[in-house]
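=== RUN LOG ===
request id: a7f3
mode: sequence -> structure
chains: 1
length: 240
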Amino acid sequence: MPKKKQRCDEAQLKWFEEALERIKKATGARTQVQLAEVLDVRQSSISDAKRRCSIPADWFLKLYRSHGLDPDWLAEGVEPVYINADKGKIPADTLLRETPAPYGRMNSRGRVVPVSTMAGTDKESEAWEPRAIEELSVPESFCRPRLTVVKIDSSSMEPVITRGAFVGIDRDQKEHPDGDLCAVHFPHQGLSIRRVYHQGDSFLLRADNDKYTDLTIPAAEMDSRTVGRVIWVLQSFASL
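=== RESULT ===
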């Protein structure tokens, strides 16, 4: 008769989920694919570890060598975070601000992501690339493989998006459904967030704030100028 598969008990499962969450937070790996790349293992190895609720000892050794992480912190949450802080990719105080939450509760787990200016690295460049100025903790469910977060420095989309808001842009989404919010690059100006409408051989970029004029882009240029679609906005409506 085939052997019965062993199931993790509640305590084992809790330990595994919290330890794996610490690994993901410390390495910035958001998906199983990214985690497999960081650990230099097959994705099936991670699935096997989840099934057994057991983290192989060589993972801790790899993470010490690649990220300077303390195995005791990874396994039990016992500080310090780093044995070799020079190899750390994320500041220890950032990692310690949040308590790991169980898998399955996507909105209770956060990720620290870089926040860019709307100007990017070089306003005069033909292609927009982010320039990080700060960090932001967002729910893990808000993250995407190619998420870019920018801090809004314009009032063109008020009252929907206020100046100072944080906007999440999915750079894998470059479609232009009428009325959707898109991030579009204008050389010498930087990034603009506007509602996009297709009109014949051009696209109309409309601001929600009536004080701002509409912009147009030839349809042939729209794909190359589109950075991505806005998928979320984080802002405060009250003064802090």
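=== NOTES ===
The domain at 10-99 is CATH 1.10.260.40 (434 Repressor (Amino-terminal Domain)).
The longest helix spans residues 10-27.
=== END ===
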